[in-house]
Amino acid sequence: MIATFALVVVAVALVCAGLYGLLGKPSTHTGKKRKQHVVNGFRVGGGILLGFALMTILIGSSQIAFGIVHSTKLSRFFAFLLWLGSLALILSMIQLWAKYFAGWIGYSVLNGLFMMSSGHLVNNPAVLVPRWWSTSATTIAFASVLVCLRLNNTYLLKATDRAALMTWLLIFTFAVDIESSHSIYREELGMAAMFVGCLAFVLAWWYDREAQHHRHRTPQMQHPAGRSGT
Does the reported pTM lie above 0.85? Predict the structure, then answer.
């Protein structure tokens, strides 16, 4: 209830800020800069809410589409179409959200440290978490952060980066679905999924690093200077 109320308050604040950014007409230079800050904050906040909504739809529709959760209001076929649509929309905006990805994974590192110290889930103290699992998950998340720090504002994603990001997204959805299925192997499968996602990032980083070294090693073509006279 509290989380829902907080989201409603944030949404109302974003709408008000967006209206100010669109309709407000400041006359001074300071006012124009303040308006630009409001617009940028509106974009970031709106992007966070949109990302949260898309991830919720992606995970929820996948659980219904693949029979993990049974729903009387949504058919498996329509849930599958909804899953594909949300996945396509996330892919179309990948250049926009990739620069925030390392921070998102960094939050997982923080959660992993809390689980390592407490021995249970962060949001559910009744569920115990094995030490080997929390330690491995934290290590994998930290390694993923290190190889994703290069995805900043000025970095243009390559095909390998896009493939790694979408692979991790699908793997993350699979891990959540496994956790919800209450399988006796959910811990092992979840760990294997996180390892595959991290491996995709490492391979994309290694490919980009090798491509840069190859460009530096390749000598530039030298055009012979023309000579005048005989």
Answer: no
